[in-house]
Amino acid sequence: MPAALEIKHLSKTYDNGHKALSDVSLSVKQGDFFALLGPNGAGKSTTLGIVSSLLNKSEGEVRVFGHDLDTELVKAKTCLGVVPQEVNFNQFEKVQDILITQAGYYGIKASEAWPTVQIYLKELGLWDKREQPARMLSGGMKRRLMIARALVHKPKLLILDEPTAGVDIELRRSMWRFLRNINEAGTTIILTTHYLEEAEELCRNIAIIDRGTILENTSMKALLSKLHKQTFVMETIPVLQTIPEIAGFDVSLDAGGQLEVDMQGTQTMSAFFNAITDHKFQVASVRTKSNRLEELFLSLVSSGQDLNSEEKVL
Amino acid sequence: MTARQIWIAFSTIVVKEIRRFMRIWPQTLLPPAITMALYFVIFGNLIGSRIGEMDGYDYMDFIVPGLIMMSVITNSYSNVVSSFFSLKFQKNIEEILVSPVPNWVVLLGYVTGGVVRGLAVGFIVTLLSLGFTDLQIHNVAITASVVMLTAVVFALGGFINAVFARSFDDISIVPTFVLTPLTYLGGVFYSISLLPEFWQGVSQINPILYMVNAFRYGILGVSDISIMNAFLMVAVSIAILFSVSLHLLNSGKGIRN
């Protein structure tokens, strides 16, 4: 069974000489929910742009469900649905016309596309807006319209480039449910996002890219297991004025007087609570300082080092 | 893609293009109608009555074919250049680039959109001209084929302009500094037989002269140039411009970089 996406030794140098990708290789299994993460300018959009035929590659090989972009472009494109980072539909067109036109580009007649269009307009909460020009939609609705447009020809691989950017949390969660359902129904999904919580929540496998190079390409579970340190923030009663000395633990106080505890992978919460029994404060609440994936991500992209290398920083 | 799918993709682009220029008809269909009506009134009626005859025809009768052709040229060009450049500018082009529509179908779709607008405006101007002259068509086949092929030539020209354009200024440079002068000097308002011999020779390197004269021949039966040469020139122009346009699309010039 071919991979949903197979990228081998992909490089891209722009006309201005900027090298955006350098020997990128990765593979996404069929049915996967895959995250491609990286800081701004890391090469995520360039990679996805090449896969989507929006950009020419300089070197390398890209296969979509076994179809080589160089030799079987039409077949490869038929398998793909793309949700770009920026709104790119004609804002003067009606919502339903945008979807029907897109289906037409895939050789699907308007009458044949209409049932699918209806389904996605309803599922994504756009049905009532179908007769309106797209410019009348809110930011969140525009994002959903782009998702509907990418699905209208029933692609096997859906590429989402920051689909929930600028979307409120309630809507984001409803989009997560929608995407999970699509994935469970068999569509492979590749996601880039700045919300690392989103990637952790949705994706089973992950690649981290920085400065045009893949730093990690593994399962989410395996990546998170590499987290060697986590910081917990504790609200204490009374609020502490000075940093307490707690044997075996690195602690500090934040600006609000909350206690921050750096716990190594080998340390347990029970050991910490045992260590503070003689102190004159109580812990009212505990939360992690940041998302687990966020900590890993920041460590990786700031060091530019492989997690498995000798100089790992976690 | 199968032939049926390609036809659906092609008609999708054409319908979208027609819907676009119909939606903004006050910008696309109305201005040429007003401009040409003014030409008919001022040059045809007011000034034309004092000019007398040109090549054996009333001045109004003489300029009508040229003015119809001028509106076809301008509109087929400007439809494609503005539509395709807007497509690039607003990134709508990504909708097409990610889809499996072959490049030649994209090109044909946009060119057809330009041709339809050129012919629509030409038809409106023709209807307007009936208020000023009794238009008789000498040869329907030549008239129809010349106007159609000319619209194709300039739709392709507009496409190439749009590919290279980087700003809205770039899409008005060619119409303003190339198309308009060539059209005015292309025998719309006069017969080149009025010019000194040297300038007659210079005029013959102007492709629009051939199109205007071939069209005038179709309507009036008179022309300053050979009709065969006109068809040959138009056919060669289409072949060259189509090849260049397709090459630009295939290479992704100004689109995929």
Describe this protein's structure.
The complex is a heterodimer of chains A (314) and B (257). With 314 residues, chain A is of the alpha/beta class. Chain A folds into 2 domains: 5-219, Rossmann fold (3-Layer(aba) Sandwich), CATH 3.40.50; 229-293, Alpha-Beta Plaits, CATH 3.30.70. Chain A contains 10 helices and 14 strands. Chain A has a 6-stranded mixed sheet, sandwiched between helices. A 4-stranded antiparallel sheet of chain A has the order 2-1-4-5. Chain A has a 4-stranded antiparallel sheet with strand order 12-13-11-14, with no helix packed on it. In chain A, helix 3 (95-105) crosses helix 4 (110-123). The longest helix of chain A has 16 residues, at 169-184. The relative contact order of chain A is 0.13. Chain B has 257 residues and is mainly alpha-helical. Chain B has one domain (3-251). In chain B, strands 1-2 form a two-stranded antiparallel ribbon. In chain B, helix 7 (140-164) packs parallel to helix 11. The longest helix of chain B is centred in the first third of the chain and has 31 residues, at 59-89. In chain B, 47% of the residues are buried. The model of chain B has no long low-confidence stretch (mean pLDDT 91). Chain A binds chain B through residues 14-15, 52-56, 73-75, 77-78, 80, 82, 84, 86, 88-92, 97, 101-102, 104-109, 149, and chain B through 1-2, 4-6, 8-9, 11-13, 15-16, 19, 23, 90-92, 94-102, 252, 256-257.
Instruction: Find the CATH superfamily of the largest domain in chain A.
Output: P-loop containing nucleotide triphosphate hydrolases
- Which secondary-structure class do the elements of chain B indicate? mainly alpha
Helical percentage of chain A: 25-40%
Question: Count of helices of chain B?
Answer: 11
Low-confidence stretches of chain B: none
Key attributes of the depicted protein:
heterodimer; A: 314 residues; alpha/beta; Rossmann fold; Alpha-Beta Plaits; 2 domains; 6-stranded mixed β-sheet; 4-stranded antiparallel β-sheet; 14 strands; globular; disordered C terminus; B: mainly alpha; two-stranded antiparallel ribbon
